[in-house]
Amino acid sequence: MRCRLHSQFRSFVFLACSFFFVGCLEDERKVDLEDVKRKLDGVAFDKESTSKFIDLAKVKLAELKIAERDFKKAGEINEAIFNVTKTLEEVTALIDEVKASLEASELGFEDYQAKYRAKVRKDVVGKNLDLSATKGEDFKEVRVLSVNPVEIRIYQTSGPQSVPISEIPKEVREMLQMSEEEAEAHRSKLRDNAKVREERYKEWKEGLADRKSEAAQKAIAKRLKDIQTEVENIEKSMNLRLLKIQDLKSRSSQWQRDYSLARGDKRREQALGYSQMYRDKAQKLTDLNSEGHLVIARLRSEEEDLKKMQQPGG
């Protein structure tokens, strides 16, 4: 009886333990399943995040590739701009060199042209020119005394004359390198010089407006004295030229007589050449004396003005 009860009690304990262990196993299994589920959910979340990250990375990568291409193109453009700039600088430098060369050539040509013009005009002095095309038969063979941009000074039996550029034949103008542009520039220069002299004299004259000033009176006296000295010097030079002119004309006349008496052509040609040479020299000195008379007339006019300034109420 006791053994049977003992056996039943043991069976009951075993059964209870079995239920307990089974319950524990079920609870443990339930916990494991929930943990696995959470892990699976985490894996699913990580997979979605990873997918989004990959997609975003792909977009960024595409943008970086585009930026890389753009940067590469920008580098190519910069290199092209650098090359173009360098080429442009080289071309500009070459243009500057060519321009400088052309300017130097132009200056060289102008210098050569000026020297040639001066030479042909100097060489024609003392020689005969044919101006009959514009001046008539009386100017068939006229001797040249001088040439300037606006006229030719010639000598005829009636005396020296001036032929303006407008009355000089085209062929002669071209030979002597004469042009209306040069003539006008020469006239303009003469006008400017005359205007400057007139303005200077006017300023000097206006500076003496205060005639009562002692300094002004001294200045007038000094200027009158300078004018007198200048006139005397010019007259002295003119008198010396007159003596030289008489001597040259005398020599010209002697050679003219030799020309008339000479029998050989060579002797006659030599005599005529010397006669014309001395006559031309005499004419040049005569022209200088004519200019001297003009200067003296101007000085005398200034002298009269200054003398009036010395007079009360003048």
Structure description:
This protein has a domain at 207-314. It is built from six helices and four strands; from the N terminus they run αβαβββαααα. It has helices spanning 2-124, 132-135, 170-175, 180-206, 214-261, 265-310; strands at residues 128-129, 142-148, 151-156, 159-164. A four-stranded antiparallel β-sheet has the order 1-2-3-4. Helix 5 (214-261) packs antiparallel against helix 6. It is elongated, with a radius of gyration of 59 Å. The chain starts with a helix and ends with a helix. The relative contact order is 0.05.
Q: Topology, pairings included?
A:
Layout: H1 2-124, E1 128-129, H2 132-135, E2 142-148, E3 151-156, E4 159-164, H3 170-175, H4 180-206, H5 214-261, H6 265-310
Antiparallel strand pairs: 1-2, 2-3, 3-4
In short:
The protein has 314 residues and is of the alpha+beta class. It is 81% helix and 7% strand. It has a domain at 207-314.
Please name the defining characteristics of this protein.
four-stranded antiparallel sheet; 314 residues
Counting DSSP H or I runs of 4 or more residues, the number of helices is 6
Percent of sequence in beta strands: 5-15%
What would you report as the Rg, rounded to the nearest angstrom? 59 Å
Structural class, by secondary structure, is alpha+beta
Distance from first to last alpha carbon: 185 Å
**Secondary structure: number of strands:** 4
The whole-number mean of residue pLDDT values reads 76
Order of helices and strands: HEHEEEHHHH
**Overall spatial form:** elongated
